[in-house]
Amino acid sequence: MRIAAFALLSLAVLPAADLDRDFSGVWNLNPPRSSIRGLPFPPDRVLRIEMSGDTLRCQGETTWTYNTAGQSSANAAAGTSLSSLLKWEGSALLINTLASGSRQYTLMDRWTLSRDRNTFTIRRQYLIGGGESESTLVYEREGVRSATPPPASPPSLRKARQDPRPATIREFVVPKGTKIPLVTVHSLTSKQAKPGDRVYLETTFPILAEGRVVIPPRSQVAATLTDAKRAGRAKGRAEIYLRFDSITLPNGTTRDLRSRLSSAEDQAVERGEGKIQGGTNKAGDARTVGGATAAGAGIGRLGGNTGVGAAAGAAAGLAGVLLRRGPEIILAKGAGMEMVLDRDLKFDAGELP
């Protein structure tokens, strides 16, 4: 009774124009009327709110203090720092909170009161990584009889309300033959590569289907190095064979792949085999042999036998070529690649970010 009397007294001393902006009171959560999805912490069952001047104090399991005049408000909970900014939109109070520390996420709240000021509603958007969820928390003023919850909608109607896209689009397809640009997450070289090594890449460009982004940038692609050969001595180019295995969207949705390599930086690629092939050093080898021949001829001239010196120089140059390997394949971190889908990738609407 004392709490209810306090709430009524605080309403009485406020100007009529401010009543719709006063959330003071004790509020009890009405779960049947609420819709709660994927929040970083469960909603408080009871909220005690006090408003005085530009200060709003909200007490549940934790106490939060806010400034309603547009100044940043700092709070903390469970090792997480919270920075909030409040703004009035008519009689609705908007609270945007950025969380950093052990967890990083964003909360966007919209507080409103019913006309009789006995129902307090929080519409809350929760954003983390590439994912997003929206909840509606309905609170009843303590001491006021709870309103009867509205009849439940059929499951098909509830699903349609949650999904603003046309009901006809339930599946999004990225067709076979689509090219997907990638970058490597780590460096890769034929000198150290071994069959069975895992290779990780990220997408760099949004892939759309039916006008919607289906594969966002920074989706993770996993590949396996199925074979690798170092560059040979005298002959034999370096080779790396890649097989793309799976793609994971930022919200965790994963699909197995059947995809082949289309391009890789400035390296030669055999698309049918998924093979990256290193270059040759024929020009450098020719310069090596030619330089050694010329040097041998000069030495032979000093000894009175140019032909013998040239032959010896050429033999030395050729030996150097035979002992040296050709150029290795080197793909630095962030190197660009492109894969081509060998089959359709299908996603249900509810699986997409």
Which of globular, elongated, flat, extended, rod-shaped describes the shape?
elongated
Low-pLDDT sequence parts: 1-17, 156-161, 163-167, 295-300, 316-323
Oligomeric status of the shown chains? single chain
Order of helices and strands: HEEEEEEEEEEHEEEEEEEEEEEHHEEE
For the record, the CATH architecture of the largest domain stands as Beta Barrel
Overall helicity: 10-25%
Whole-number count of domains: 3
The number of distinct helices, counting runs of at least 4 residues, comes to: 4
* Cα-to-Cα separation, first versus last residue: 47 Å
Number of strands: 24
Class based on secondary structure composition and strand pairing: alpha+beta
User: What gyration radius follows from the Cα positions, in whole Å?
Assistant: 34 Å
Q: Give the CATH H-level superfamily of the largest domain.
A: Calycin beta-barrel core domain
Which CATH class of the largest domain?
Mainly Beta
Return the average pLDDT rounded to an integer.
Answer: 76
What kind of sheet is the major sheet? Answer: 10 strands, antiparallel
Strand share of the residues? 35-45%
Kindly report the spatial arrangement of strands forming the biggest sheet.
4-3-2-1-10-9-8-7-6-5
Might you state the CATH topology name of the largest domain?
Lipocalin
Describe this structure in words.
Strand 18 (about 240-250) and strand 19 (about 255-265) form a beta hairpin. The protein has a ten-stranded antiparallel β-sheet. Strands 12-14-17-18-19-23 form a six-stranded antiparallel barrel. The two termini are about 45 Å apart. It has about 350 residues and is of the alpha+beta class. The protein folds into three domains: about 1-150, Calycin beta-barrel core domain (Lipocalin, Beta Barrel), CATH 2.40.128; about 175-280 and about 325-350, Lipocalin (Beta Barrel); about 280-325. Helix 3 (about 280-300) packs antiparallel against helix 4. Helices cover about 15% and strands about 45% of the residues. The chain is elongated.
